[in-house]
Description:
53% of the residues lie in helices and 15% in strands. The chain is of the alpha/beta class. Strand 9 and strand 10 form a beta hairpin. It starts with a helix and ends with a helix.
Amino acid sequence: xxxxxxxVRSRWLALASYSVMCYLAGVAWFMGLAFEPFTLRTYMSxxxxxxxxxxxxxxxxxxxxxxxxxxxxxxxxxxxxxxxWLVKTMQSRGLEVFTQSFTRKLxxxxxxxxxxxxxxxxxxxxxxAPRAPRTEALVLSAPCSEGNNNNQAVGLLxxxxxxxxxxxxxxxxxxxxxxxxxxIGMQAWLEGYHxxxxxxxxxxxxxxxxxSIQAALSLELSSDVITSLDLVLEGLNGQLxxxxxxxxxxxxxxxxxxxxxxxxxxxxxxxxTTSGYSHAAQTMMLMVLKQASGRPxxxxxxxxxxxxxxxxxxxxxxxxxxxxxxxTIGRLLEGMYRKLNNLLERLHQSYFxxxxxxxxxxxxxxxxxxxxxxxxxxxxLRALDLWVQLGASPPGTEDGVAGGVQxxxxxxxxxxxxxxxxxxISHMTGVALYTLPxxxxxxxxxxxxxSETEAVVLTAxxxxxxxxxxxxxxxxxxxxxxxxxGWRVLKLVALLYLAVLLGCTALINFxxxxxxxxxxxxxxxxxxxxxxxxLSAAIMVLLxxxxxxxxxxxxxxxxxxxxxSLQDGWMLFLSVISQGILDHALYxxxxxxxxxxLIYPCWLLLWNILFWK
Length: 613
């Protein structure tokens, strides 16, 4: 007995309409998160930091700038980090000073920063707590950047060290760190401080330590005066610091009268206008794209893996008339550190999962997860429908619906090999995409006129593109044609696999999981062997993980108000690929292995279903 045509087609149309409605509802829910009435106002959850009633007296802004100019002169003289001068200067300010040397060989040259074999030295001084057993510590860091960048930050750090030395109320050690080679130096210092080596770096052990680090701030200033301070929160693998740290920064900016921004955008009060909503949506989407990248967007990003709440404060000097001097910035940092000094335990009472359309509003995990849930439920509905179809077919026969049309077939049942073979081959391709680009770079350089970095990126693109030929090779390996029930079982496996992947990803890094769901859910829900091959193949390629990354590059540039041409966008795309591989090798970013070993093979399973014979 075969069910009549109309009920089967009606069921397919109803399921398709429900899927479209859920998809549109998920996108609408996400876009509505930037509307101010749907967000929460930020508030301080930690009682020890609930008030900004401290008196900031830091007076030495001009002296800090003079120290910064002296640091710049010595840096230019030695052609790098002036280690001896920094050690002498920190010792003169009453700190216990130590150095750490490190060496790091990159898997392939970093053409953005023109480095391959990195050697450097970190210099740090410890201000011991005079009123506590020295079991806890705070960190203030400033990277030693190339050229004239960040000299003012180092000068202010040394000025604050001298001023803090004269205070007697510190209950925690304060570590003043000047790290060389930005994130590589910071990674070496953190691994040395915590006796770990997760990335294979070579560094000397630390001779001096403070207590357990409770919080850290990284300072970036490259101008004597600034118009606003930008707060950078996104860390490694999309981790964010406790929201109270952002609340503390915002509270002191409001108290002292400093313009503050997030994602480089000022807060607006006209939320009920189209332009006001657009501004908040752009700010939130910038945060989503940065978090989805999985890379640390400042030196603070590496502290978060050690459960240390950290953020970067970046000075911006634009054409606005409003100016803030270094003394004011020093008072803001003094106030923040005095409040952090009052902590009796680690920051934990506020949110760790959130999005921020502005510094005064936030979206908690309970508000944004339904947007992802509406997309994920589509996969479960389609999987349930396939399960019902497979269970309703009598043994040895096949009937059902594909593309809205009733289909009937003769006796057949899928073998384990017909299902297992595409799964294994797809994941082997993912393993090749993960391992071969770096392993084959020397061979590629010998046979082609490309650099090592170009060889790695082009090899990755070549393997990614070669995966499109897998359905043909899979069928040749099987030496026969697949069954109608076979592709349904394979799609059921792919749907459940993708649902679990996206769900786990969204719990850890919502932004990455949501972006992947936007592109993968439609093709996973509607692809069958009976859909038009050419149109479906074009849509699948356009919604593949690689093309999604390309779209994100262009969208990110548009949101930053720095649009690029197609050629420049393509070059940025290649640079993003190389940086993603480097971030994984140097700092342990998980985005590249996730895409190569899990997401891409899952997409290949859907590609196999489209060309199922």
